[in-house]
Amino acid sequence: MTTISKYWNLVRLDSSGQLKVSEIIPLKQFVVQKFSPVIESENLSDLSIQRDLVTSKNNQDENSIIAERCLRCFISHQIKQACLQLELQFGREQGFNRHDLFIYTLNDTLDNFRDLVTTSSVTNSQYKPLAVEILATFDPDKANLSTWTTRYVKQNRELQQFLLEHGVYLISNWAILNDTNTKQVQRILSEFHSLTPTEIQQGAILLYCYHDVYRRDRLKNRQSKGGRCQTPTTEQLERIANLYKQKLNLSLSPEQTLSRLEQLATLLREYRIQVRGGKIKQESWDNTAINTEGMQGALAQTPEDSQNSDRSDFLTCYQQQFQQCLDRSVEIVITTRLSKFKGKKAPKAKQFITALKLFHCQGKSMSAIAPQVELQAQYQVTRLLKLKELRVDIRHQMLQLMKDWTMTQTITQNNLANWQSLKQREQEIELALGEQIDLVLDEAEKEVSIADSNQSILATRICDYFGLTESEPTNFLLSNE
Fold it and tell me: Do 261 and 320 have their domain in common?
């Protein structure tokens, strides 16, 4: 589902480098008029809007320019989100923030939106904002625009160079291992890391075994060709370990095999960062834990935060509370929704629960769910679940619970001075909380339009609520590519 205003609000940097959101009235009028029949419908998805706008843009009709600007507005929001995710995942450890990233990516301006009659002022210019490049390569039949934008942002050369200089190399461990051969790994481990001959031999053989199993499986699976390299499965790790034992007569468990592969990838990553002019202080792109940079920024000027240990303790409690608040919000919202099925609507309660489980826990599509809950069509399931409304309610509950906890937790520590400072920064704290909650809910929203998307954090917690997954400690501040 979509937030329709993203198609007429442009996220940009002003002359002072500050983030601004500008509403463009002609675009708003166009979008509202064009999509008014279904603008409140749960069936209105970003993908359907984007297909329509891309068709209009490519047809070069009277609305092609406006359609193109609407798509660029949407892209600007996704660029901001991609930069925020990079900051949350790497910023604190590597010493940069979102504003450093905006300089390289949020380079569309209001001047490019002044002329909605002719494109001559834009097409004749050699300057191409990143949003224009993204849109020129976008195919709605192959990708969601939000996913495509995130991928394109991470491939931006200037941004990649900046991140390298801060020790971040945006390639997964498994991709690094895939495109490194055994001769290269021997040279790198010997000349760059100065390891012992035994360590070099073990590293080279481990890489050979990885290639023989993982890379061969990947080449056989044509569906994954060109896709992101995923973490090896337990079955693959067992096969790698068995082959490794045949070569060296050393036994490894699947867990040990995974650990050694990650260690080898880390050594190769350090080498790549160094030769590309970066500094060797990296985080793996596969490391899904996100730093709570937003909250750290909001709390940075409180008096007691000069003590690093106090801040660390607070953030540890904060992450635990984030998880608990999400679980509690899921429980409250689902219980409230079920309480509304009364009288003649009572049978819908069972349909709702079944549909919610099938969608979130088994990854079923709306059309596949319909016959299993005795409905005739996909749109009836959509109306039954009202996922957009569900996420909005969960967000509201989470934001209130987290804000209340953040603003009052210091009272239990008899720290009135810190509480007063937090109170003064309440709006900034609420903004940081909202951004982190939105990351979780945006991930869940993508499940609606991306059939093969991984199970989101929200989906996992809903399944835990129904007792359909094994509950394990989870860091809820996660990043998704």
Answer: no
List of residues 6+ apart from 359 with CB closer than 8 A: 366, 369, 385, 387, 447
Q: Are residues 394 and 268 in the same domain?
A: no
DSSP per residue, 373-405: GT-SSHHHHHHHH-HHHHHHHHHHHHHHHHHHH
Give a yes or no: residue 203 inside a domain: yes
Asked whether residue 286 is assigned to any structural domain, the reply reads no
The parent domain of residue 12 ranges over: 4-165
Residue 47 CA to residue 146 CA, distance in Å, equals: 9
**Distance in angstroms (rounded) separating the CA atoms of residues 253 and 243:** 12
Q: Both 242 and 114 in a single domain?
A: no
pTM: 0.53
Do 319 and 405 lie in a common domain?
yes
Predicted confidence (pLDDT) per residue in 429-467, tens digit: 666 667 667 777 766 666 554 444 445 778 878 887 877
List C-alpha distances in Å: 52 to 30, 48, 58: 13, 6, 10
CA-to-CA dists, residue 199 to 176, 191, 243, 468, angstroms: 19, 13, 17, 43
9-13 and 19-23 strand pairing? antiparallel
Cβ pair 82, 154 in contact under 8 A: yes
Q: Which residues pair with 31 in a beta bridge?
A: none
